[in-house]
Structure formats: structure tokens, C-alpha cells
Write a structure and sequence with these properties.
The protein is 0% helix and 53% strand. The protein has no helices and 11 strands. Strands 2, 4, 5, 6, 9, 10 and 11 form a 7-stranded mixed beta sheet that branches. The chain is globular.
Length: 126
């Protein structure tokens, strides 16, 4: 099993920045991909970003390209999501997710991830 704990959410004004962290523990050697998803109020969960263990493959959702950056620190078993130029429409609960060694490769599909964090609220005021 892998446990994921997000942190770094909060309230920020439009145009501001936040950095989310996702600390992984447990059988972290089995993690192949780390991803971020978000769920705005009353809407479905949306893909934000993902990167594989090697860091060679990085993917972003269209709505965050050029503004958000995903990264990881393997020594700390932690993934990060740097969010710049935040907009009110970025308001959502942000979830960290991890996929194991049999990950499908469909980075944008929430159902293909094996482990999830509890989520952290990000609110962007106008």
C-alpha cells in the first residue's frame, strides 16, 4: 500500500501562486507515476498534471499548461505542483494520485490510478 498526504492548499488572490506538496509513504518503490487532479464544486474530477518515476514523461491538462509545473523529489518521496497565475476557475479540491508498476499509461484517467490522497482545498479569489 502507498499512502499520500497533500499539503499547501489555501486561499490566494487571482494572479498569485501556491505550491502543493504530496508526500508518499509505504511501498513507494512500487509507484510508477504521480499525478494531480482537481475537483471544482459541483463538477467532475479533472486531470491537472502527471509525471512518471523517471521524470522523462510529463503531462498537463490543457487548462493549466504554461501556468502549473509538476516536479518530484525522489529522495523525499514527494511530488509538487507549482501553481502560478492562478485564476478563480482554478478553485477546487486538489488530489494527489499515484499509479503502480502496471499503470496503463493513460495519465489523464483518474480511474487508472491506484492510490489517492485526501485532497487539499485551493481557493482563488477574484
Amino acid at each position: 500500500q502507498v499512502q499520500l498526504v497533500e499539503s499547501g492548499g489555501g486561499l490566494v488572490q487571482a494572479g498569485g501562486s501556491l505550491r502543493l506538496s504530496c508526500a508518499a509513504s509505504g511501498r513507494t518503490f512500487s509507484v510508477y507515476v504521480m499525478g494531480w487532479f482537481r475537483q471544482p464544486p459541483g463538477k467532475e474530477r479533472e486531470f491537472v498534471a502527471a509525471l512518471d518515476r523517471s521524470g522523462g514523461n510529463i503531462y498537463y491538462g490543457d487548462s493549466v499548461k504554461g501556468r502549473f509545473t509538476i516536479s518530484s523529489d525522489s529522495a523525499k518521496n514527494t511530488a509538487y505542483l507549482q501553481m502560478n497565475s492562478l485564476k478563480p476557475e482554478d478553485t477546487a479540491v486538489y488530489y494527489c494520485a499515484a499509479g503502480g508498476v502496471y499503470f496503463s499509461g493513460r495519465y489523464g484517467r483518474a480511474h487508472d490510478y491506484d492510490y489517492w490522497g485526501q485532497g487539499t482545498q485551493v481557493t482563488v479569489s477574484s
